[in-house]
Amino acid sequence: MNKEEYLEVYRHSLAHVLAKAVIEIYGKDVQYAIGPQIDDGCYYDFIIPASVTESDFPAIEDKMREILKRRENWVRKEISRSEALELFKDQKFKTELINDLPEDEIITIYYTGDDYVDLCRGPHVENSQELFNAAFKIKSISGAYWRGDEKRDQLSRIYLYAFPSKDELKAHIKMIEEALERDHKKIGNELDLFMFDPTAPGMPYWLPRGWKMYQELLKFSRLIQSKHGYTEISAPLINNKKLWLISGHWAHYVNNMFMVPGLAGYMSADAEVPGVLESMDDAPDEAKAVKMLAKAPLYNRENDDTMAAKPMNCPNAMLTYKRTVHSYKELPIKYSEYDVLHRKEKSGQMNGLFRVQEFRQDDDHTFVAESQIEDEIADIIATADEIYSTFGLTYRAEFSTRPDDFMGDIEVWNRAEAALKRILDKKYGEGGYEINEGDGAFYGPKIDLQIKDALGREWQCGTIQLDFQLPHNFGLTYQDADGTLKMPVVIHRAIYGSFERFIGIITENFKGVFPFWLNPYQVGIVPIRQEHNEYAAKVEQALTAAGVRVETDYSDNNMKEKIKKFKNYKDPYILVLGDREAAEETVSINLRGSNKQLQNVPLSKLVEMCKKMNDEHTLELIDSI
Q1: Which of 20, 124, 360, 446 is catalytic?
Q2: Could you say which of 182, 184, 343, 532 is catalytic?
Q3: What is the CATH class of 3-181?
């Protein structure tokens, strides 16, 4: 048994011990549902005839340890459906699970001692003694709907951390505490970067400070891409259903798209014969307009003018390419795009900036001849290296090959995969990347770049995908050197991936202490008294002219209050200006994250330092002159 299999048995067995402990404490009226193992432990769902709070966790943990000390045998039995229904006749959730099993299913139960039995496939330990040194701790209790259906029973879900040793448990809890300290939602609120509102679930509001940082990421992306020959485009945010039918997204992605019903389908609420509402201005009042909207069908209308907010930029890039005849001499053609995208997500899947319904990507669609694939992808990887290293990020490459349901010419696939493999072998060495056989998209092989965050978690941000299908769907061609028309290959590419997710990752990586060039405001200016405001304005003007983002507190608040405000926002440099600084045209700099100060710095030198950090996109703050 390998470690992964051992952990599954270990944690699943502890879930049974947790359930037994809850029943022994709260009585036979407890309804117990399911208790699977998860990545860092397990959980069990119950209906408990009492309120369970965090203060009750020690008692449950103590009861679990008491149960383990009994060294009870775990006995597996196969029973008939009728026997199972009789055994669990007082347990509504177990009864439902039994009734849902296929007729030919072998039904197994596990006894832990003589007084606790659970419906379970197993496997489990043979005796509680095997869990005697178990390291576990109750993590939390939360509400959960039976089978994830909000119309069903609401259960109490008790989560348990579980590890083979106390050291592993301690290290994991420490990591969780660190994750809470780094939580981008918490930091985003503290630094006033972004917010969410129930009226737009999963769609962040970027506040002034956060939007400044967002714009810097855009600016940096555009700077790098301009050096690599990209041309930026922008396209409509909604398109008619016809476009998504051509691209294939309607068939494969419609459930994740936001629909915008067209006016042709809106019927007059009072008309005896179906009619067309030419304009919302024709509606006699708001109530009638709402009634019309409620009755309007979204799909399968004649002359369907249903629109959809775009979940990706690909079809728009295809149309942009198709607008004119292209020569092989123009290739590669690189269309970068930063338009807003929308994707419907289940409410339980949304998580701050990590999983949103509205976002931007540093998207690109590059049109190449087959012979150009290798050089172009090598350049994309070099671009990714340049961008990721600027943020101190490391990554791991994954290569996904042809799936069973691939489309296109198998020989083209073979050549494309061979080209990608040559690039990866040269860049990372043989065995220096992971190969996912058969996990490519149906339209082409791909390379995914998995970046690692400060907590060791991996995030798929960068992706490089070859596409033979969309050019075919849209009838794209270029004129080759011999005068014949050939179909280009499209390379889909993103490096940040979603800006929102990337910002969430770097916010947690930097713990809100962003590099100088990226920080929303880079310099906070504190005039000590009102008579120093004039010189503060001069310093602000000089820095602003040099492209430095400055905020100055001209209020009559005391100096300590002003400094504290800028410290709370984690401004890298806080300038304190008094009589001497005004007379000598210098500044005194309080450095972020330390008690260190730089005294008597000439204003011209400060401008030079700030420009250097902005131009070079350095990670470190200049802390000496």
Answers
A1: 446
A2: 343
A3: alpha beta
Cα–Cα distance measured from residue 235 to residue 555, given in angstroms and rounded to the nearest whole number? 45
Residue 167 appears among annotated catalytic residues? no
For domain 523-616, the question of CATH label 3.30.70.100 is answered with: no
Q: Please pick, among 94, 249, 360, 492, the residue that the annotation labels catalytic.
A: 492
Two tokens, residue 45: 């769902």
- Is there a catalytic annotation at residue 314? yes
Mean confidence (pLDDT) of the chain: 91
As a whole number of angstroms, the distance between CA 185 and CA 189 comes to: 6
pLDDT one-digit tens code per residue, 323-340: 999 999 999 999 999 999
Separation of alpha carbons 308 and 321, rounded Å: 21
Let me know if 467 is a catalytic residue.
no
Does the annotation mark 40 as catalytic?
no
Kindly state the helix (H) or strand (E) to which residue 489 belongs, with its residue range. strand 489-494
How open is the CA angle 436-441-445, to the nearest 5 degrees? Answer: 60
Active site residue 343: yes
Reading the block at residue 73, the tokens are: 């045998």
- What DSSP letter does each residue of 474-520 carry, written as one string? TT--EE-TTS-EEPPEEEEEESS-BHHHHHHHHHHHHTT---TTTSS
Domain boundaries, the chain: 3-181, 215-261+306-509, 523-616
How far does CA 113 lie from the centroid of its chain?
A: 44
Assess whether 492 carries a catalytic annotation: yes
Dist. CA 356–CA 359, nearest whole Å: 7
Q: Which of 45, 56, 362, 363 is catalytic?
A: 363
CATH class of 215-261+306-509: alpha beta
pLDDT band at 263 (very low <50, low <70, confident <90, very high): low
Q: Is 174 exposed, middle or buried (0-12, 13-18, 19+ CB in 10 A)?
A: exposed
pLDDT computed for residue 294 by the predictor: 44
**Residue 422 φ then ψ, to 5°:** -60, -40
Say if residue 470's pLDDT is above 80. Answer: yes
Residue 313: closest CA among 359, 375, 260, 369: 359
CA distance 386 to 383: 5
Choosing from 16, 365, 402, 501, the catalytic residue is 365
User: Tokens 């509680």 — which residue?
Assistant: 128
- pLDDT tens string 336-378: 999 999 999 987 788 999 999 999 999 999 999 999 999 999 9
Q: Is 404 a catalytic residue?
A: no
Catalytic site residue from 314, 362, 493, 553? 314
First-residue to last-residue Cα distance in the chain: 60
Q: What is the pLDDT of residue 268?
A: 39
Q: Are 433 and 448 in contact (CB under 8 A)?
A: no
